Each structure stands twice: as structure tokens, then as C-alpha cells.
Backbone:
């Protein structure tokens, strides 16, 4: 026993022998099959974190735009715009839009739950699938419009 | 529960130290929960406006971005977006840190540092919008 907390993990089986108590496995991995509830929940947190990192990009874009004036020129802004238009910048922006649309759609799902709607399991499964479908449609639509406008 | 039942014995499972610190009750928790929902509702239209702005400004040169931000509706909407977004982000980041950092000192320090960074980003973004709006 390396840790005193392990004392709590000792139990007796039906034969009366001392055993290590089983612990429930982590929600992701081979122990569980796919669950809509846990998958959408962890993706909400991951997409939220990604958007948090993406907010750095928004700040960078706004600040670089504000740095440009008659005296300084728009060198900083041009660098940022060129980075965003590069393939790595586009990849980052693609991830940003996908995270935004997912968080947007699943956020609406959360707000519906908060007012007590859509709590039963079939409705939860349906709305979860709807969130994935809507995320794909919105992301594809955004980039289709983006490349048309560009 | 019928009235003839004996009154339930109320016991607390919380330690005196925990009660003294005010942890575990719904003191600031309900305000945090409500603020997260209120900011998320504000972000529904604001994020759609942001997406529309991004499409309108794709490949724009500096002059076009400056002209866009100088329009009062746009500067006001961007300021509202910045306020709601970074506020929502700070609330969300706090929950994530509280979930994954068990050590109290590290948890407090991490939340303070991240909230400081988020506040700074919000200020920098807001000042950038204001500078574009007024120049």
C-alpha cells in the first residue's frame, strides 16, 4: 500500500476474502460503448477551450488592425491577414468555425435542458445527432460562402 | 412525507473548516451559473453577427476593415461581442480549472492567472475596436 487512501479500496468478496475494490473506468475508452451524452458533453468542453484559444486570434487580428495608421502603415495587419490566408491559417480558421458552430448548437441544446425541455433519452439522442448534423452543415455552408465571396 | 412521520434528523456531513470557508453551498455558484446562461444567450445573436462580419471582411485590406469598424453599429456590436465572449470564456475556464485542479492553492492561482489573461485580452480587443472606431 503506497497511499493511505488505498485503505479505502480494500473490501471483502462474497467468500469473505480481502480484495481490491473495483473502480469504475474512465468515461472514454474501451470500457464503454459510444454514448451520445458523454460524447457531446466532452466535445462541448473541448470546443469551448478551442474557442478560448481562438479568442487570442481575434484579439491579434483586432490589435494588428488598430496598429495600422497613417504613420505606421498597415504592416502588422498585412502579416496577420497573410497568415490567416495561408493553408495553416485556413486550417486554424476551419477548426475555429467548426468549434464555434458546434458550441453554438450544443449550447442551444443546453439552454433547452435548462428550461426543462428535451430531457428524455430519445429526445437527447435526437438532439445530439441534430447538433452533429447542424455543425457539419453550418461549417460547410460557411466555407462555401467564404470561398464564393473571397 | 406525511405529517405523522417523526421529523427527519438533520445531520451535516461537512466539516467545520469546510463550513467556515463557505465552500459547498450555493453562495456564488448560482450567480455564476446564471451569468454563464445570460452571457450564452447574448452570444447567440452576437456570434452570428461575428460570423457574418468575418464573411464580409474576408480578404479585406486595412482600409476596408477600418471603415467597417468605424460604423457605429459595428463598433458597438463588436464591443458587445467582446464583453459577452470574454466574460463567458472566463466563467467557462473557471469551471474547467475547478474540475481538473484538485490542489486548492494551484487552483486559485491558475484561475487568477487565466482570468487576468482573459481580462487583458478583452481590454486589448476593446481598445483596438475603439481606436478603429475613432480614428
Residues:
Amino acid at each position: 500500500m503506497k497511499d493511505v487512501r488505498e485503505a479505502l479500496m480494500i473490501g471483502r468478496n462474497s467468500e469473505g476474502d480481502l480484495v481490491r475494490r473495483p473502480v469504475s473506468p474512465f468515461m472514454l475508452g474501451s470500457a464503454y460503448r459510444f454514448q451520445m451524452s458523454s460524447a457531446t458533453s466532452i466535445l462541448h468542453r473541448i470546443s469551448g477551450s478551442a474557442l478560448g484559444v481562438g479568442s487570442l486570434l481575434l484579439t491579434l487580428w483586432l490589435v494588428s488592425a488598430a496598429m495600422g495608421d497613417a504613420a505606421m502603415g498597415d504592416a502588422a495587419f498585412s502579416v496577420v491577414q497573410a497568415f490567416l490566408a495561408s493553408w495553416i491559417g485556413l486550417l486554424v480558421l476551419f477548426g475555429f468555425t467548426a468549434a464555434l458552430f458546434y458550441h453554438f448548437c450544443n449550447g442551444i441544446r443546453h439552454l433547452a435542458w435548462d428550461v426543462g425541455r428535451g430531457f428524455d433519452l430519445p429526445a437527447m439522442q435526437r438532439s445530439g445527432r441534430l447538433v452533429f448534423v447542424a455543425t457539419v452543415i453550418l461549417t460547410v455552408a460557411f466555407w462555401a460562402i467564404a470561398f464564393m465571396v473571397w | 412525507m406525511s405529517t405523522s412521520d417523526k421529523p427527519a434528523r438533520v445531520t451535516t456531513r461537512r466539516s467545520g473548516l469546510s463550513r467556515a470557508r463557505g465552500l459547498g453551498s450555493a453562495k456564488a455558484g448560482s450567480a455564476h451559473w446564471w451569468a454563464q446562461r445570460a452571457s450564452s444567450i447574448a452570444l447567440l445573436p452576437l456570434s452570428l453577427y461575428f460570423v457574418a462580419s468575418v464573411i464580409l471582411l474576408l480578404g479585406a485590406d486595412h482600409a476596408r476593415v477600418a471603415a467597417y469598424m468605424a460604423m457605429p453599429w459595428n463598433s458597438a456590436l463588436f464591443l458587445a461581442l467582446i464583453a459577452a465572449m470574454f466574460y463567458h470564456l472566463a466563467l467557462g475556464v473557471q469551471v474547467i480549472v475547478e474540475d481538473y485542479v484538485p490542489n486548492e492553492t494551484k487552483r486559485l492561482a491558475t484561475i487568477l492567472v487565466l482570468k487576468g489573461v482573459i481580462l487583458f485580452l478583452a481590454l486589448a480587443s476593446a481598445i483596438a475596436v475603439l481606436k478603429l472606431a475613432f480614428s
Notes: Helices of chain B lie at 16-21, 29-56, 62-70, 72-100, 104-134. Chain B touches chain A through 33 residues (CB under 8 Å).
